[in-house]
């Protein structure tokens, strides 16, 4: 490819869609979206703040939760400018480089969240199935190693597919399906050979999201087997209650991803509004719900918040 053609491709401008056919209602639609983003930022910052200031929460389970909150916060920060920019009619345009960067963060953070949920499952497995060795297994050094490993896996595994988007030619109308950029959306507009990206993306889903979910399921099979072996029903319930928050977070993360994947693969006949709705649920639902889940279901965080707000009142 010549220098002039590379320059032409790199200067491509893409148009972000919000809700097709509902443009006149954007001022009203922007109100719930602005509220959701505010809740995402406040909720995850609150979780991070509580974990930071409460000494009793300085343990592996809550270090992983803090990393999950940081991931959700980053997801909100990576999409808020284009989503609200579109709804507020500030700008519906995004450059190719900006679109590639946003797609990298969106997919990378999704991979990171999947990995964090996996090591949180490992944390619960260790705490319930091997409680006497919990502190010796999940040392601070090992916790840091697990988190760095998950972060490096996400950053490096996503890069080969995303960086190739820069060198594609986009000869189809530059209209994106969402108000943010996704890898599969850019592929749809490309007229270059996209076979590597298609196969690589499929392999990545299998070896990250699918494998992570399978390992989470296996860990809970062992957890359930261990819990059922406990004689006391009260101890069984107590053990399972420590897993409720994590199970809810897993469902909140994987169900929207499965839904969005099914819509992109098999829902081409569906209304564009369905695609837009599923895309926004995929981006916003986990960051919105995780702070609520852990604030309601985790006794230590709930107690700290009650104490905090009672002092404020």
UniProtKB/TrEMBL annotation:
PROSITE patterns: G_PROTEIN_RECEP_F1_1, G_PROTEIN_RECEP_F1_2. Keywords: Cell membrane, G-protein coupled receptor, Membrane, Olfaction, Receptor, Sensory transduction, Transducer, Transmembrane, Transmembrane helix. It is a multi-pass membrane protein. It is found in: Cell membrane; Membrane. Signal peptide: none annotated. The chain crosses the membrane at residues 25-50, 62-84, 104-122, 143-163, 199-231, 243-267, 273-296. InterPro entries: GPCR_Rhodpsn (IPR000276), GPCR_Rhodpsn_7TM (IPR017452), Olfact_rcpt (IPR000725), OR51/52/56-like (IPR050402). Pfam families: 7tm_4. The keyword Cell membrane applies. The keyword Membrane applies. CDD domains: 7tmA_OR51-like (cd15222). Residues 43-294 form the G-protein coupled receptors family 1 profile domain. PANTHER family: OLFACTORY RECEPTOR, OLFACTORY RECEPTOR 56B1-RELATED. Belongs to the G-protein coupled receptor 1 family. Putative odorant or sperm cell receptor. This is Olfactory receptor.
């Amino acid at each position: 490819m010549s220098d002039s053609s590379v320059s032409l491709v790199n200067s491509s401008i893409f148009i972000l869609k919000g809700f097709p056919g509902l443009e006149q209602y954007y001022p009203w639609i922007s109100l719930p979206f602005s509220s959701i983003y505010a809740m995402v930022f406040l909720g995850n910052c609150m979780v991070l703040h509580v974990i930071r200031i409460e000494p009793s929460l300085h343990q592996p389970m809550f270090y992983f939760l803090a990393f999950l909150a940081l991931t959700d916060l980053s997801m909100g920060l990576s999409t808020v400018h284009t989503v609200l920019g579109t709804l507020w009619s500030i700008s519906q345009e995004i450059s190719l480089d900006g679109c590639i960067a946003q797609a990298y963060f969106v997919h990378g953070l999704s991979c990171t969240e999947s990995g964090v949920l996996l090591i949180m499952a490992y944390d619960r497995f260790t705490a319930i199935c091997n409680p006497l060795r919990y502190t010796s297994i999940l040392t601070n050094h090992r916790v840091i190693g697990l988190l760095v490993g998950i972060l490096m896996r996400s950053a490096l595994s996503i890069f080969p597919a995303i960086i190739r988007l820069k060198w594609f030619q986009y000869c189809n109308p530059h209209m994106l399906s969402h108000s943010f950029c996704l890898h599969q959306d850019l592929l749809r507009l490309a007229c270059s050979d996209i076979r590597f990206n298609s196969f690589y993306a499929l392999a990545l889903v299998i070896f990250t999201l699918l494998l992570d979910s399978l390992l989470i399921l296996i860990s809970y099979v062992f957890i359930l087997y261990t819990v059922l072996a406990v004689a006391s029903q009260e101890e069984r319930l107590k053990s399972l209650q420590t897993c409720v928050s994590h199970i809810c977070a897993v469902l909140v993360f994987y169900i929207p991803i499965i839904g969005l994947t099914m819509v992109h693969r098999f829902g081409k006949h569906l209304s564009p509004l369905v695609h837009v709705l599923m895309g926004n649920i995929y981006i916003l639902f986990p960051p919105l719900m995780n702070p609520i889940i852990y604030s309601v279901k985790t006794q230590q965080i709930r107690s700290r918040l009650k104490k905090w707000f009672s002092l404020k009142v």
